[in-house]
Each structure stands twice: as C-alpha cells, then as structure tokens.
C-alpha cells in the first residue's frame, strides 16, 4: 500500500525528510479496526517527531495522528464498529501513524465520523478535540454542563488547532468568558468568529492586557503555545486557587514556586496518555469523539479546517510540515485522497 514515511530525521527542506513509499498492508486483530484512510490532518507532534536527530530507521517510519476514513476489516474482539462505518480518530503515538492508505487503530479510541462533515473536515478534529476536551474537562475539571458558567479562561494560542476547538468547547459547553491570544488581525478575527469574548496579543504583556480588559486574574489558563515563554505571565495572571494546564513540553526549569502563595495548580495534558498506558478508561476517547460528532451534527461546534493542501503525498506533507514549523497557520491543515 502507499504511505509517506522516513528513514532519516532531516530538516523539512530536504526532499528525503518525508518520502513516498510502498509498505505491506496490515491485518486487523483483537480490538483493532483496519481503516481505509480518506483524509488526514497534520499537527505539531508530527513535526516534533520528524525533527532532525542522529537516528536511522531500518524500515520507513510512518507518522500522522489525525485521520478519517472507512472501516474495511475488524479484529475478533471489536464490538463498537462494523465494516463500512465511517470513522475519525487520532490514534496512538506508540504505533505507526495514519499517513498511509490503510491503518490499524484500537476501536476504543475511535469515534463515528460526524455525518454532516466530509472526510477532510472530519480529519481536522480528532487530536485537537481530544486534547482540548481532556485539558478542559479532565485536567482543569471544568464542568461541561455549564456549572462553571461565567468564570474566565485564558487560552494561549487561540488560533491554532487545539485553541480553535478549545474556544468552542469553552463557550458552548462550559459557558466560560474566553480570552484568547492572537497576534495578527486574521488570527484575531478567527478567534472571535469561533466565540472568543476578547483577544489579546501573546507577543505583548499578557497580565497588563488582561488588566486593561478588567481581569485582575483569570480562573483558568489553557496554554497551547510555548510553556517556557509564557509561564511567568501565566503565574501572574492565574487567580488564587486557579489552575493552569499546558500541552507544550518545557525545555528549561519552570518556577513552579511562583504558584505557591496562590495555592494554584499546574497540570499537563497529553492526549496519547490513555492509549500509551492502556488506562482502564481508554474507552473515554471513543465516547468523547462520539459526543464531539453529535455536537458537530447538531450545529453547536464546527470543523476547524484552515486549509486543504490537496492529495496525500510526500510533497504535500512536506509543505504542511513547513507551514506548521513557520508558526503562522490558522486552524488545521488537511490532505485527502491518495
């Protein structure tokens, strides 16, 4: 089957950084679905895994952790899906990715594709929707039923993939007052179009901009961009007994003691945790994605596609990686069809 893979970890400007390859088609067993991939999306995790390093793979490594497609075979233990079902999912970082014609994925982290979306529109959602949902409702313990309505959340990186769905979840389900960061007129307009009440510039003084809007502190912070750079601002902005959640790994020590006097919390979100450790609640991601699909089909949430880059091939994937590494994308980049 066709796939896009790598054997060496190279700068994205190198044509060998991602190449078109032929690999064996896998077979479904256990809880696995074999999915015919119709569309994929690209995330910062793809660029981080692909980043240059002194390592060589014996066989092509396939990346890609966002896909939508059709179930063509099921393992013996599958109970949630049948052949012919359209699905969307992010997959597991510990298994081969979805940048291939056919892909194996555990049914317990797969959702039924929103009926109102085509495959590219659906492929834009899984990884970011899981990340934003878990960060907000599992890690920060915000009520998805509106019990925290009126409280404030600062979303750093509002126009990115996770921020784009995070703004919607914060408004539609939680009823929060949303302050999103955006540094350009087009990204500011994007955030407001998704429901942000206010926008501020993450290149500026975040606490000062919040005070100018009338927020001495915010109840929650969701950091979807550069933890190292924004930690001091987050520590100053967070309310006493509030909580900060980040999805971006730090490269240096963080001054966690700055949170002590406020009894403020700091938590991590990694959407691969449940699949990586096969946690007892792994099926929560299946249920989560089905709920996102329901909300999409009910018109309460919308897809977050920023641009469709065309056919799934190495050249277009290299372009997508380059755009992500440039740091100026809005929403999600998708590709569809081989």
From TrEMBL:
Metal-binding listed as a keyword: yes
Gene Ontology MF term list: oxidoreductase activity; RNA binding; zinc ion binding
Keywords from the named record: Cytoplasm, Metal-binding, NADP, Oxidoreductase, Plasmid, RNA-binding, Zinc
Residue span, Enoyl reductase (ER) domain: 13-335
Record-linked SUPFAM superfamilies: GroES-like, NAD(P)-binding Rossmann-fold domains
GO cellular component: cytoplasm
InterPro entries: ADH-like_N (IPR013154), ADH_Zn_typ-1 (IPR014182), ER (IPR020843), GroES-like_sf (IPR011032), NAD(P)-bd_dom_sf (IPR036291), Quin_OxRdtase/zeta-crystal_CS (IPR002364), Zinc-ADH_QOR/CCCR (IPR051603)
Gene3D superfamilies in the cross-refs: Medium-chain alcohol dehydrogenases, catalytic domain (3.90.180.10), NAD(P)-binding Rossmann-like Domain (3.40.50.720)
Pfam family, one: ADH_zinc_N_2
Localization, UniProt: Cytoplasm
The protein's assembly and partners: Homotetramer.
Family (UniProt): Belongs to the zinc-containing alcohol dehydrogenase family. Quinone oxidoreductase subfamily.
Record protein name field: Zinc-type alcohol dehydrogenase-like protein
Organism whose genome encodes this protein: Cupriavidus metallidurans (strain ATCC 43123 / DSM 2839 / NBRC 102507 / CH34)
């Amino acid at each position: 089957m066709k796939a896009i893979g790598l054997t060496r970890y190279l700068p994205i400007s190198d044509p060998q950084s991602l190449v078109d390859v032929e690999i064996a088609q896998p077979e479904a067993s256990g809880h696995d679905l074999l999915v015919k991939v119709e569309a994929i999306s690209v995330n910062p995790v793809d660029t981080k895994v692909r980043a240059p390093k002194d390592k060589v793979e014996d066989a092509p490594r396939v990346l890609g952790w966002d896909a939508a497609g059709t179930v063509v075979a099921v393992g013996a233990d599958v109970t949630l899906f049948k052949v012919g079902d359209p699905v969307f999912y992010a997959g597991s970082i510990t298994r081969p990715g979805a940048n291939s014609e056919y892909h194996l994925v555990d049914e317990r982290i797969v959702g039924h594709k929103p009926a109102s979306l085509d495959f590219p529109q659906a492929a834009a959602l899984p990884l970011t929707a899981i990340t934003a949902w878990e960060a907000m409702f599992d890690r920060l313990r915000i009520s998805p039923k509106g019990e925290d309505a009126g409280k404030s959340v600062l979303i750093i990186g509002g126009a990115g993939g996770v921020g784009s769905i995070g703004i919607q979840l914060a408004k539609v389900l939680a009823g929060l007052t949303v302050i999103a960061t955006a540094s350009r007129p087009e990204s500011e307009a994007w955030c407001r179009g998704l429901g942000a009440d206010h926008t501020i510039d993450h290149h500026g003084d975040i606490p000062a901009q919040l005070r100018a809007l009338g927020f001495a502190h915010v109840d929650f912070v969701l950091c979807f961009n550069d933890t190292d750079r924004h930690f001091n601002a987050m520590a100053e902005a967070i309310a006493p007994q509030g909580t900060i959640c980040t999805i971006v790994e730090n490269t240096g020590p963080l001054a966690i003691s700055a949170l002590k006097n406020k009894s403020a919390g700091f938590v991590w979100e990694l959407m691969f945790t449940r699949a990586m450790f096969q946690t007892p609640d792994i099926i929560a991601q299946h249920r989560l994605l089905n709920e996102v699909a329901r909300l999409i089909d009910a018109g309460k949430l919308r897809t977050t596609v920023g641009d469709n880059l065309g056919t799934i091939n190495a050249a277009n994937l290299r372009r997508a990686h380059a755009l992500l590494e440039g740091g100026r994308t809005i929403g999600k980049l998708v590709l569809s069809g081989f």
